[in-house]
Amino acid sequence: MRETTxxxxxLERLAIYYRSLKRLEENKxxxxxxxxxxxxxxxxxxxxxxxxxxxxxxxSYYHDFGVRGRGYPVSYxxxxxxxxxxxxxxxEIALIGAGSLGGALISYDEFKKxxxxxxxxxxxxxxxxxxxxxxxxxYDVEQIDEILTKNxxxxxxxxxxxxxxxxxxxxxxxxxVELILNFAPTYIEVPNNVMVRNEDLSIGLIGxxxxxxxxxxxxxxxxxxx
Amino acid sequence: MRETTxxxxxLERLAIYYRSLKRLEENKxxxxxxxxxxxxxxxxxxxxxxxxxxxxxxxSYYHDFGVRGRGYPVSYxxxxxxxxxxxxxxxEIALIGAGSLGGALISYDEFKKxxxxxxxxxxxxxxxxxxxxxxxxxYDVEQIDEILTKNxxxxxxxxxxxxxxxxxxxxxxxxxVELILNFAPTYIEVPNNVMVRNEDLSIGLIGxxxxxxxxxxxxxxxxxxx
DNA sequence: TAGATTGTTAATCGATTAACAATC
DNA sequence: TAGATTGTTAATCGATTAACAATC
Lengths: 226, 226
Hints:
alpha/beta, Arc Repressor Mutant, subunit A, Rossmann fold, two-stranded antiparallel ribbon, globular, DNA-binding, DNA binding (chains A, B), Tscrpt_rep_Rex (chains A, B), DNA-binding transcription factor activity (chains A, B), transcription regulation (chains A, B)
C-alpha cells in the first residue's frame, strides 16, 4: 500500500468536511470560510485550514483550495475530496451478519448516499425479514469465498457476534477482502495488507458512563459540603 | 464537572481493557501481563502500562495495580475499572428514534452486559414491531420531557435522522439529560454542562474507501509499469 | 484601498515510545 | 538467586494552536 502521510485523525475530519460540503452544495452555497464551516462543525478554523493544507500536500495538489478573502469554493473542494476519498464510485460491499445490527446497516442511508453499496449479504440464517430488499443479494455463509472471489469484492463489514468475528475475518481475507469495517466488539487479527477499522458501539457509551459517575460523585461531594 | 486529567483516547482504551479483562475473568485467568493483554488487543505493552498508570494517577489510587514479575490480577483490576467507569450500576438510558438503527441498539447485548440499560424509547411512530420487548417502555416523542424529568434520566441515545437531531437534543437537554450518544450524522450544539459523543457509522467506511482508492491507483500504477 | 481570509511557518501542547531501576 | 514484569521518568514523535505575511 502506498505510504500516505495523512493521519487517521485528519482523514476522519476530511470525511466530516466532505459530508458538510455536500449539504452546503445542495443548499446552493458557493463559498464557505473555514470560520463558518468550523462553527457548523464545532471545529476550529485553524484546524480546518491546517487539515486541508495537509491533505493538499498529501495528494500533491498544485493549486490552492481556497480563495483568500472569500473562503473555499464549495463545489470545487467537494469534487476534490470526493475523488481522493474514492466516493461515489459505486463500491460494492459485502456484509457478513444480517442480525438486527446488520439489518440496520443495510437500510442505513448514509452509506448509499456516498456510493458505498452493501450488495452481498451473508448469514447462517436464511429466514430473515430483511431478505426481500431491492438490490441486495442474500447468501449463506458457506458461499462467501465463491461469491466474493468471483465478484472481486474488496470491502466488507463484519456484523456477527464477537466469538464468530475472527473466523469470518479469516474467510473473507482468504476470499480477497482487503478492507474491513468491524462491528464485532473484539480485536481481529489480519495479514499486513489488510486494513481493519473497529466500529465499537459500546466504547462511546462507556466513556459517557465514566463522566456520569464522576458527575455524580461530584454532586455527592457538594451535598456533603452543604 | 470535575476536571479529569484523563484523555478521551486513554478512556477509550480503558473501556477496551475492561471488556477484555471481563472475558479473561470468565475464563478463570488470574493474572495477565501487559505483554499478553497487548497481544490480545493489538496494543503495545508500553501503552497499556502507561494508560493504567495515568488512570491510577487520575483516580488517586494508592496501591499498585500490578504485581512485578507476574502481571495484573484480573479480578482486582476489573473491579477497579468497573467502579471508576461507573459500570454495572444499572444506569437507565433513553433512546430517541426506534427505526432500524434504534431497534438494533435496543437488542444490542453489549450495552446490557455492562449495566447500561435502554429503558425508555421514544419515536414519532407507535406502530413498530420492536414495541413488545420486555423491560422497555415505549412512548411518543411528545412525552420526552415528562418521562425523562420524572425519572431523572441523565443519559440518552439519539438515533433519529440528521435533520431532527438538533431538535431532539434541545428537548432532552431541557428535560435534564447531560450525556448524549449521538448516532445522527450531524453535529449537535449543546450547553457546556452537557457532553456529546458522536458515533458516526459512515466515517469509518469513508476512511476505508480512501485506502481502497489509493490501493487501486497503486495497482494501476504497477500495471502501467509492466 | 480596506477588510477578510487563506496558506504556511513556528510554537506549544499532548500522546506514544524507550528505557531502566525497582521488586515480585 | 535469576527471570520476568511492573512503575515511572525521560526522549521522541505527532497533532493542535498561534501568528502573520500573502493576496483576494
